[in-house]
């Protein structure tokens, strides 16, 4: 492994420059470098990985060769039918077709020419499994575990996972290990497996400030970073790009701010913007988000719209026809021990488990809690009629909290006083008293819980919870007759406030099928590319399945890197349409 990730001196000219070291940007850089280009990556933070390093790392690529090798059937025609049902808008249809055609090619290239290794998740249904063309698994690829110690000193440059998603102060676990950890002390096999995991972690901590067995998005980010190091890509950390250099209508480089003043760096083939969207830019949120979406984001703080502003200043056009401005997720808020605000995204760990409901400020259920996190927040936004400040809560009893945990509170947590004293978790002896504490009319909440319980005892639910394979997949397979439904009846009772937030933005720069950025009338801007959340969502803000942000990010990062290697500026056409 090369021993230099941040160059001591940066030359005045590269073949290609990538702004942003998230999954899309690192993919573009790794592909361009693998095809022989000299590449510079500019990252404004001190870490690589972006939001990917915090994520589940799922990559949605239909009809990929990995799933086929595992004996899982899928066709591009089926995937196209599914996307037609879940992304009905005509806009960006050509980009979706390109994604379906070239996504498997992108994964094959990455696995052959970089450190990226992915494996199919055999059972992980699409989010709308009853629609035509859906599959029960295999379209979703997950990163193979990566040994972070292979990065040597550069491991410190990989963005750590959220502490709430680790154990013992830095131990990552994968999806397969979680059920075993829940069965410690009840299953000999699970206890042995968990003991081995903890022993390996303790050995790693003797040499590292956190565990080096990387899973999920941290493994993907680590593998991409290793690919940059192996290919000699220069990475400049803690650096802001002030402007793109435009000459004769083409992007020729960037201008950065340094301690000694401004400096220009030129790119022979072109520049890729991949700065992570605008989740943390208040002005853009006000422009594009509904008021009820508020100001909270679960995305990395580096996503402040830098790449979008740079590109727009160079004449780029932004997408406008979109179903949702962001990929939504309900979150709970808390304060960490160091005083920082924590944001816990309620994606898959608790909402679909049996014995929990979500209620609004009137004490009424408003959603099938086991639906995707995107649909859950869509229901929150509808319930609030687009107004900010509407209150929502997850409600459960002591059995649920002990068995499944809630938010960042892990299963089998005995000491709950800290969470209760801080106001993060509300506890009460009865449902009526719980309602009083959270300012809900007691009879209203009691009636809602009673109605839910009556049907739950029979395995039924008024909202159809547990009615499809996706919902049952996220429930508790060991609970019968419905893995998503159980009564709420053992005191004490608990409420956890949740608010609408985003996992990333969907509105971005309009591009063609090679990830080249288009201007406001649809002409290609020579030398300018976009991928990741800086690229307008090819799903138009819809969320068909797990990994539909990373799937396109890797695919169009690959296409950008490949086009750069084929000539970049010199091979740019003059006109392209985005839909």
Indicate the topology.
Blueprint: E1 13-19, H1 23-34, E2 39-42, E3 59-60, H2 65-69, H3 76-86, H4 93-113, E4 118-120, E5 140-143, E6 146-147, H5 177-182, H6 188-205, E7 213-214, H7 216-230, E8 234-236, E9 241-247, E10 250-258, E11 261-273, H8 282-288, H9 306-313, E12 326-335, E13 341-345, E14 356-360, H10 373-383, E15 392-397, H11 398-404, H12 417-421, E16 426-428, H13 431-437, H14 442-456, H15 469-474, E17 493-505, E18 516-518, E19 524-530, H16 550-565
Parallel strand pairs: 1-2, 1-11, 2-8, 11-19
Antiparallel strand pairs: 3-5, 4-5, 6-7, 9-10, 10-11, 12-13, 12-17, 14-15, 15-17, 16-17, 18-19
Helix pairs in contact: 1-7, 1-16, 3-4, 4-16, 13-14
Concise structural overview:
By secondary structure, the chain is an alpha+beta fold. The protein contains 16 helices and 19 strands. The protein has helices at residues 23-34, 65-69, 76-86, 93-113, 177-182, 188-205, 216-230, 282-288, 306-313, 373-383, 398-404, 417-421, 431-437, 442-456, 469-474, 550-565, and strands at 13-19, 39-42, 59-60, 118-120, 140-143, 146-147, 213-214, 234-236, 241-247, 250-258, 261-273, 326-335, 341-345, 356-360, 392-397, 426-428, 493-505, 516-518, 524-530.
How would you state the average pLDDT, rounded? Answer: 94
Structural class, by secondary structure, is alpha+beta
- The CATH architecture term of the largest domain is 3-Layer(bba) Sandwich
Unreliable spans are 1-8, 574-579
Report the principal-axis shape: globular
N/C terminus separation: 42 Å
Number of domains: 2
Strand content: 15-25%
How many helices? The count is: 16
> CATH class of the largest domain, please?
Alpha Beta
What is the H level of CATH, i.e. the homologous superfamily of the largest domain? FAD/NAD(P)-binding domain
Proportion of helical residues: 25-40%
